[in-house]
Specification:
single chain; about 270 residues; mainly alpha; 9 helices; about 85% helix
């Protein structure tokens, strides 16, 4: 229906054009579905964090594992893919640019109360302590999730293998993110309605970002795709270092490295099955 409507409005789609647009529409919907699936892990983690008193040490262990999973995905899937597409220059420029953009936005949000959005203890400020911190936390959650979702959409353009590994890595890492953040929000006095509205909205936006990544970048050149992939990889690396590993180390200290390696190897194995 979407394809027929688009072609009718444009007046330019013949039989072959209609098939092409139909393929694009179906592919975009599949990408959006996978993005929604990966984003829904945040909602699952938030449900556990809201209703179950998980010890902070266990949350930190899961966070360390999720950090390793994302580090593996960035190393062997995103950065490696970008390098194969276009060489070292675009990889360096994209990754540095992505890390700089993320770090700058994260610093601005931290000043408004979002610096502890993934902390499971009582570090998150309440709205009475720091007005506007709830909105900052919501924007921070969006900042963390969009690069991962765009990557899911663009990775599926390559035939599906990379997309499957990336979806799995993002899903696994999203569970501890939602768990830790929801536990911290609960301790800061935020309602369950706020928690589930936030993570439900982020899950939907994750699906839309994956859909947009597939639909808008299908005709992009190899160099452009390499830069975009590297930008997302740099942003994800900065996010892991700034938020996830910090939460893990604050609770489990020297175990952080060991559990992170376990997550790294698990994702690596998943990508080579």
């Amino acid at each position: 229906m979407f394809t027929m409507l688009f072609c009718g409005l444009a007046g330019t789609c013949g039989a072959s054009g209609g098939s092409e647009w139909k393929g694009l529409a179906v592919g975009a919907l599949v990408a959006g579905g996978w993005g929604l699936f990966a984003g829904a892990a945040l909602l699952v983690g938030a449900a556990v964090g809201s209703f179950v008193r998980v010890p902070p040490r266990w949350i930190a262990l899961v966070m360390a594992f999720g950090s390793g999973v994302l580090l593996s995905a960035v190393s062997f899937e995103l950065i490696a893919e970008a390098y194969e597409r276009s060489g070292m220059g675009p990889v360096v420029a994209g990754a540095v640019g992505g890390a700089a953009l993320y770090s700058g936005a994260n610093a601005l949000l931290a000043r408004r109360g979002a610096q502890h959005r993934k902390r499971s203890g009582q570090q998150q400020p309440s709205e009475s302590q720091e007005p506007g911190s709830g909105n900052a936390i919501a924007l921070g959650a969006l900042l963390d999730g969009v690069p991962e979702s765009v990557v899911i959409g663009t990775s599926l353009l390559g035939g599906g293998h990379l997309g499957t590994a990336t979806v799995g890595a993002v899903f696994i890492s999203n569970l501890p993110e939602g768990l830790a953040s929801a536990a911290g929000m609960r301790d800061a006095g935020r309602s369950r309605r706020y928690v589930f509205t936030l993570w439900g909205g982020i899950a939907v936006i994750s699906g839309l970002a994956a859909l947009a990544g597939y639909a808008l970048l299908g005709g992009a050149s190899s160099s452009v795709m390499a830069v975009i992939t590297a930008v997302a990889g740099g942003a994800i690396l900065a996010m892991v270092a700034d938020t996830m590993i910090r939460e893990a180390y604050s609770r489990v200290h020297l175990l952080t490295g060991l559990i992170t390696v376990a997550g790294f190897l698990s994702a690596f194995a998943m990508g080579h099955l």
